[in-house]
Amino acid sequence: MSLRRSLLAVGAIALTVGLTGCYESSDVTRFEPGQYKGADDPLLAKLEDPEFRAELDQRFEGQRDR
Amino acid sequence: MARMKFLCDADRCIECNGCVTACKNANDVPWGVNRRRVITLNDGLPGEKSISVACMHCTDAPCAAVCPTDCFYTTTDGIVLHDKDLCIGCGYCFYACPFGAPQFPTTEAFGVRGKMDKCTFCAGGPDEPGTASEYEKYGANRIADGKLPACAEMCATKALLAGDGDLVADIYRNRMMSRDGRPQTWGWAKAYGAGA
Hints:
The complex is a heterodimer. Chain A is an all-alpha fold. Chain A has three helices and no strands. Chain B is of the alpha+beta class. Chain B has a single domain (about 5-190), classed as 2-Layer Sandwich (Alpha-Beta Plaits), CATH 3.30.70.20. In chain B, a hairpin with a 7-residue loop joins strand 2 (about 35-40) and strand 3. The radius of gyration of chain B is 17 Å and the shape is globular. Chain B starts with a strand and ends with a helix. In chain B, about 40% of the residues are buried. At the A-B interface, helix 2 and helix 3 of A face strand 6 and helix 6 of B.
């Protein structure tokens, strides 16, 4: 009887350990179509700065033909 | 607000590939990936034309429309960027893009696609500008430094123009007024709509 219990216990442990490798995380990221889900770009805030915009525009103006 | 656009003046492009080299150098683009390339039409024949092609940062970007993970976003300036942390390398954007802009590094075995790489208008990605992680993933963020994209800035003949659409169009219009022939704003109608 005790041998049977021991075998059952060992079997249960082996099953638990074996199935651990089969675990798959159910914590998935769900994406809604058409909506950006990534990180915020700090550049967007910088582009709103009028001083920075003026600097950028001045640089772009340098492309004009002389 | 500006709408950033590229325009390649086919009458001025001399196929030097300086833009390609500048892009590769500025962004440390991996082997096998060409964010920008020069295409020559009627190569070797009289009247051949060369055009420098990269992501055109479309107004209604088809790559963004088909992306299953919605990793694309458009800045207030109209620059189309993407988050490589979300990209799964499915390649849908490659099939959707009319300019062949999305590139995939194939450094892994069995041709497994890596995360998509494309021209960022030298505006980096959704990381802190100027950081090592941004540079590693997206390349240089020259826009944050108040500079032009490296390709346009490097162009010896000023064939490749980058910047606000109004400015670019004005420069090109002035050139056309001193030239014969019709304007050839290659790719503009497809990228920015029929009225562009």
